[in-house]
Every structure is written in C-alpha cells, then in structure tokens.
Amino acid sequence: MRVDLGILVPALRGWTLCIDEQSPECIIVVRLPVWAEKFSEREKVYLALFITAKHLLDYRVAAAVHIYMVRNKVVVRPEALVRALREAEVVSRIPRAIEEEGPYAWEAVLYKGIVYAQQVLSLDKRVIVRVKPPKDKLERERLRVLLEGKRVTVRGRTYHVGGLVKKLDGERIAPWTYLVPRRNLPKLLASIEKKARVVMITT
Known about the structure:
Elements: E1 2-4, H1 5-8, E2 16-19, E3 28-31, H2 41-56, H3 59-72, H4 78-87, E4 89-92, H5 105-122, E5 126-132, H6 137-148, E6 150-154, E7 157-161, H7 164-167, E8 171-174, E9 177-181, H8 185-192, E10 197-202
Parallel strand pairs: 2-3
Antiparallel strand pairs: 1-2, 3-4, 5-9, 5-10, 6-7, 8-9
Helix pairs in contact: 2-3, 3-5
C-alpha cells in the first residue's frame, strides 16, 4: 500500500510512504506489526502516518496525520498507537527533522503540525460564489455552459457534460450561485473574470 503525502500536505510533494511493501519509489517504509492486519485500510494508513511523524519528528508529517484523520474520519485507540510505535519497523531515506529528541520534542512537533493542518484544511471549506452574468443572451448562455456544462446526445443517448464548477469540486445551489472550495477559487475567478462579476460570501 502506498500513500502520496503530497496529496495531504503540498509541502511533502514527492514523498511516498509505503506500508508493508518495498519499492524504489518509497521515501519511507513502515512495516506494521502482524496484529495490525485486523485493522481497516484507513486505520492502517493512519497508523503508518502516525508512526512516520513520530519517527521523523517533522511537523509537516504530523499535519498529514491530522488532515488524514479529519478527511477520513478515522481514529485508532491510544493503546494501539503506543504498541505500534514500539513494534513497527521504519526505514527512511529522510533524516529526522530534530536530531535529539527531548522530553517535549514530540508534543511541540504534534501541536505545530495540527496548527499547520488547520491552515490546509481551511482551504477545503466551501464558500458561496454568486455570479452576475452579462446581459447579452448569447454571452450569458456561453457563461452558463462554461460553469454548469451542457447536455449532449450521442447515438440517441443523452449525457450531461460537467462544467467548470464540477471540475473544481463545486456544486450549483441556485441559479448563478455555487459552492466552491476555497482552494479552487483562483481558478474559477481567472476563468470568468472578463465575463462576469463575482460576489463571494464566506460560509
């Protein structure tokens, strides 16, 4: 099993965590204890991420743990975490962020990671975007198709081709009103800035 840490934290782009497998692509390999087989795939990933963060003492990896937990709604019992930390094997091509682990080093890394994770997670939150379309009917329809897509018929079957809002993981909630993740707002604004006026309402 492999996890691209860059999907969780952009600063870790290129870091591949491998769980119970070895490959030249693996930056970090975590071999979980045999008893961890009873866990679900999400729980195994969470365990491996936590072990990696504790091993490297890197707040960005600690942030990845928190982000994964929030997005996937997964937790593992503390006693299982402690046992896994003691019994798992870790092979890393990355040096520790903190060479000497003091009594409070992990706590500092963990809480700094959580703060950083909250900044990343805030980009997942959706904002309401209201678009004021042009008055010209043709330009108005072109903008609607760009944002919402259109229906096409192929060999007698009708399909809906998603527009820009769908591609940006957003959704239409009312005429000319959409919910769009904050991280994707720049792409949306850049695509329609010359075609319409946009009003954003933070949710």
